[in-house]
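TOKENISE THE FOLD
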Amino acid sequence: MVEKELRRIAVIDLGTNTFNLLIAEIGLSRLEYIYSEKVAVLLGMGGINDGFIADDAMERAKLTLLQFKLKCEELSVQSIEGIGTSALREARNSTVLVEYALHSLRIPISIISGVDEAKLIYNGVRYCHLITDATLIMDIGGGSTELIQADQSGLINAVSLDIGVSRIYQLLNKPEEYSLDDIKFINAYLNKQESSFFSSANVSVLVGSSGSFETIFEMVNKMEFPATGNSFELPLDLVMKELNWLISSTLEERMNNEWIDSIRKKMMPIAALKIKWIIEKMDIKQVFVSPYSLKEGVFMSNLDEI
């Protein structure tokens, strides 16, 4: 069989906090990532809890999409696919950004449901992590958090909960430090949003999908997180140590910690509380970090169709 001609395609993940661009060459049973970039757009800042995209966030989004479009042209990308998640799902004015992207930049954006988002995350994670035991995949976003139950037979159940870090951060009026009252509020908020998903999911392994979990990896290992490759296991006791430090840390301490990405320094204690909440609720015994998530899942779906 003759190898089909390689195509160079791009996926843009339009997240609530971060826009991620990933470019790859794809052909028959072949996928090679050639460029990636992320920008802290903060699309949900100022409006996510009220169902709109604020004017300044809209301008940051348009500018970033233009920047990504120019990079795609520079690298001779043949097609671009945009994926909109929580902030765009809920915003009354999301069509402003979608129409700008399509008509001005020729970038089609599909706004997907939370469950479809979870399925794409699963596709990305299974590309780099061999699932052999009852596993919970967790992807912490700015607007939502996706939870996927899976085992060696495949995906069992998936849910998307509106417990994103940006959403909680703004509900708390953007704190620099997190008081005991703040921590109680966050835990109560998490429990209030709880889904029946938890009553049926009997898991012992947690796989964190990129994002905040990359920061935990870097804090534990004192090294930069590898952007590609297989998943990495983290000792549970060291994970809990870093989570507890983050929850009690001051903004100055986080600012001075070189292993916390600049876009996460203000909201990372919320992510830490969520991870700790899941570990304790599900009685997790092993923790892994996956370098792949939604955008890689889109590529895997494309590869499956070839």
In short: The longest helix spans residues 55-74. The chain has two domains: 7-112, 129-294.
